[in-house]
């Protein structure tokens, strides 16, 4: 008979979460801690990463904060080194850190510097950190990599060409990683819709929210915890036969922000 408790239990696992200072990253770190995993909270904002680690330790697990610029090869190497020194292994990697979008990318004004910046942040950081973590997952005989994409990867919208295409690259990278890293490591992605994070709240107006809700069958914007629950599914043995998938968590709509 299937033992559900074992499938929910991450006790003894070690998870690295990037972008863990706030929003989806913080929510993901805390839900994995609730499930029993030890947590490494990585973020440029060391103070808030440490605060997330403190909250995680409140769940009875071990947790540390690590300052990390995911576009820096040296920082990524230091992140993995700090994880191994503290916990001795790596089982779960949640690639949350990213940026760009917001409908501000005028195609005719884009610069090579901006394009490189967004691809380094959204795509190459995932590639580089996953390559560093994968051998340790294989050694521990349990690995799950979860890449946070975006609904912008699956739709078309004005002034989103660089961000949207970078997240589409994340989707395809996820699928190829799943092929290359199986059978021990599962690799999946999550494409969030409109989530009420601090970043969204800085630009959210009642008018914009109404546009989003019109395109959302469930008639409510998402919360960071909604994405974290999907992260937990992919991180845990609940999804032991799921790999190479991109899960849209979006209230049933595309939220393309078009009128």
UniProtKB/TrEMBL annotation:
<protein>
    <submittedName>
        <fullName>Glucose 1-dehydrogenase</fullName>
        <ecNumber>1.1.1.47</ecNumber>
    </submittedName>
</protein>
<keyword id="KW-0560">Oxidoreductase</keyword>
<dbReference type="Pfam" id="PF13561">
    <property type="entry name" value="adh_short_C2"/>
</dbReference>
<comment type="similarity">
    <text>Belongs to the short-chain dehydrogenases/reductases (SDR) family.</text>
</comment>
<dbReference type="GO" id="GO:0047936">
    <property type="term" value="F:glucose 1-dehydrogenase [NAD(P)+] activity"/>
</dbReference>
<dbReference type="InterPro" id="IPR036291">
    <property type="entry name" value="NAD(P)-bd_dom_sf"/>
</dbReference>
<dbReference type="InterPro" id="IPR002347">
    <property type="entry name" value="SDR_fam"/>
</dbReference>
């Amino acid at each position: 008979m299937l033992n559900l408790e074992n499938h929910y239990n991450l006790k003894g696992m070690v998870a690295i979460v990037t972008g863990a200072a706030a929003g989806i990253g913080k929510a993901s770190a805390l839900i994995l801690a609730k499930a029993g995993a030890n947590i490494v909270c990585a973020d440029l904002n060391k103070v808030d990463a440490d605060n997330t680690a403190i909250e995680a330790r409140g769940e009875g697990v071990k947790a540390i904060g690590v300052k990390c610029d995911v576009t820096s090869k040296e920082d990524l190497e230091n992140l993995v080194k700090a994880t191994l020194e503290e916990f001795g292994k790596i089982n779960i990697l949640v690639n949350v850190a990213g940026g760009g979008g917001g409908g501000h990318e005028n195609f005719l004004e884009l610069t090579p510097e901006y394009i490189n910046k967004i691809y380094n942040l959204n795509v190459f950081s995932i590639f580089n950190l996953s390559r560093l973590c994968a051998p340790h997952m294989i050694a521990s005989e349990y690995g799950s990599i979860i890449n946070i994409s975006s609904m912008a990867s699956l739709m078309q919208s004005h002034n989103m060409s660089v961000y949207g295409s970078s997240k589409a690259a994340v989707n395809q990278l996820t699928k190829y990683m799943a092929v290359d890293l199986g059978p021990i490591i599962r690799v999946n992605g999550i494409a969030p819709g409109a989530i009420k994070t601090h970043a969204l709240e800085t630009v959210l107006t009642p008018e914009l929210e109404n546009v989003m809700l019109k395109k959302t069958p469930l008639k409510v914007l998402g919360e960071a915890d909604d994405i974290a629950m999907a992260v937990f599914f992919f991180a845990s043995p609940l999804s032991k036969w799921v790999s190479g998938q991109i899960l849209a968590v979006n209230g049933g709509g595309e939220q393309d922000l078009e009128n």
